[in-house]
Amino acid sequence: xxxxxxxxxxxxxNIGGKKLRCGYTTGSCGAAAAKAAAFMLLTGDKIDYVxxxxxxxxxxxxxxLDMKRGSGFVSCAIQKDAGxxxxxxxxxxxxxxxxxxxxxxxxxxxxxxxxxxxxxxxPGLDQPVGAAAxxxxxxxxxxxxxxxxxxxxHNPEGLAVEISVPGGEELAEKTxxxxxxxxxxxxxxxxxxxxxxxxxxxxxxxxxxELKQQAELGRKSLLxxxxxxxxxxxxxxxxxxxxxxxxxxxxxxxxDLAVDLGVENLLFAAHxxxxxxxxxxxxxxHSRNADARMEILTANAVLAGAGQPxxxxxxxxxxxxxxxxxxxxxGYLERTMESVLRRLESHLARRSFGKINLGAVLFSSExxxxxxxxxxxxxxxxxDQILEKILQETSV
Length: 396
What we know:
Blueprint: E1 12-15, E2 18-21, E3 23-24, H1 26-43, E4 49-53, E5 59-63, E6 65-70, E7 73-79, E8 93-100, E9 109-113, E10 116-117, E11 119-120, H2 136-152, E12 159-164, H3 168-172, H4 177-180, E13 182-183, E14 185-186, E15 194-195, H5 201-216, E16 221-225, H6 228-237, E17 245-246, H7 251-260, E18 265-271, H8 272-278, H9 293-303, H10 308-315, H11 320-330, H12 333-352, E19 357-363, H13 365-371, E20 376-379, H14 383-394
Parallel strand pairs: 9-12, 10-14, 16-17, 16-18, 18-19
Antiparallel strand pairs: 1-2, 3-15, 4-5, 6-7, 7-8, 8-12, 11-13, 19-20
Helix pairs in contact: 1-2, 5-7, 9-12, 10-11
């Protein structure tokens, strides 16, 4: 993708000592495309660039692409630039088709979603069920820019805007949208209008949305897994079990959000490689934040009575799975996991201040293969009780 001058050239963020370039959101693309198309419709002129000031106060100067003029409408596109953020929507074209309305009925600016823009099918999201997944931030930007143009060029009837994204339906499969109940395409997003590189806030917001949806459906007991390993484990564990939420590395944030939403019971189904960290009080489990897996596993092996040669071998293991194999072969796996689960219970309770009933089921993928079973390593004392409540709620 060739980077056109956009106003983002000097907008950077330092992440891990690296200077990374910011980008702009699908919402900014939609608003800029709508502004350009509206200007060309109302004036009859053609423009190659459009200026847009984002809600975050950053001015963008964006190239207008694929302009089409038809009977009563103008359509054009803006190409998304996510900067140095690993965003699946980087490089996509966001189109706006703008036409004049026939009457002066409210609203002055009518915003709809076309092909490639998702539609909301579940409650608890930014937009109501049935609406196009164009969030409030982009809608405000579009209305602001087009209302100004209607006033300047004396168009009291207002304008109709259709936002579309070619290929958006296929792209949405790589996002959280299907899990959130947004079907048929991507979401048009952006609170500030700017994409910060490697931003964790978007992931945490998605987790919060999933939790909110479940809470609004009346669910008080939820099953959470950090990722794909957990989903695979649950599939083997039983057909009636499926995770409501994927929390990725944000275990602590997920607990905090669940407490705020009034969730009563939360059960984590987690691979030992992630949750051995939580047993050491580490609630953001990405390796760049903390990686004391072998230290925590070895410390619990000490409490289980393991001797020095075994502890040395355990500390030198390169993966948690290797550590589990070493403990299993030495006959210390069960006692070590009992210690791990006690520590895990303590840290989970401390994180939530006892405001939510938190439990966990831990597993090892390699152990499952060796034993030709689920690979379960153990569960907290309250796990069965929470699981029963989850199954009761899902069967209603």
